Amino acid sequence: MRATGPSARTEVGRVVEIVLKHPHEAFGSQARIEAEWRALHFAGPPDFERALDEYAAFVDLVGPMGLTLRCLSETPGTGLDSVYVRDASVVGPDGMILCAMGKPARAAEPDAQAAAFAAWGIRVAGAIAPPGLLEGGDVVWLDDETVLVGRGYRTNDAGIEQLRQLLGRAIEVVSVPLPHWRGPADVFHLMSILSPVDRDLAVVYAPLLPVPLRELLLARGLTLIEVPDAEFDSMGANVLATSPRRAVMLDGNPVTRRRLEAAGADVHVYTGREISVKGGGGPTCLTRPIRRGAV
Hints:
- By secondary structure, the chain is of the alpha/beta class.
- It is 24% helix and 24% strand.
- It has 8 helices and 15 strands.
- It has helices spanning 23-26, 30-36, 48-62, 109-120, 157-167, 211-219, 254-262, 273-277, and strands spanning 15-20, 68-71, 89-92, 95-98, 124-127, 139-143, 146-151, 172-177, 194-198, 201-204, 223-226, 240-243, 246-250, 266-270, 288-292.
């Protein structure tokens, strides 16, 4: 697999190859949206046509010239949530690791990604098996030897232990207990409160950041950009780094944006009412980088 080596084990290196799923394939139609959104706990039904327009603008921000875009096709058994491609797989040193979804309605997504990886010639190194649960939004590479994993309702201890075994002894896996917050039905991952933007810079929502994690980040020399309370629900803490200090974030978070820019970040925003806000998935959720350049 091409996404091996230290350059793949980073959240901030320049994105070279990335997996996406267009809402045309994930949402299907307005009729399908109307049939599914309530059961999936969306905040409201996305407008299909507006979602297509929003996504086109989003891809323009994420996909500069030279980037390899891998687009997932529509797959039976996957639903609206499958637009949030990060959650179904994790990049490991020896290939992709398929997740086991904590949200039962998303159970088919890892197998769908596995089929796509096989077609693209991308190696799968392993998979999380029951009773393990693991979602990619809970997995954050801090550096090429350290991965943080949120232990919450979508990722359990068995899933974290299996990930530890699949990654091998050379990788330190740090389990991060997540708060109950709004309960099991809410979309809450580690990346809801932490987004690295450079090797020494991260966006965080401090009130929900566990003290040991905050201490670890500071001890590693990271400067923390704190998201104000008013910008947490609008996913101010969910920021995608497409290269060191180049950030893509949801529009409507002006304070966080100004703080990032003051730290030297080049910030790009997108309108995401239909593709992000209603489904609770920001720019990191909409993307699964599988190859990045060295930092």
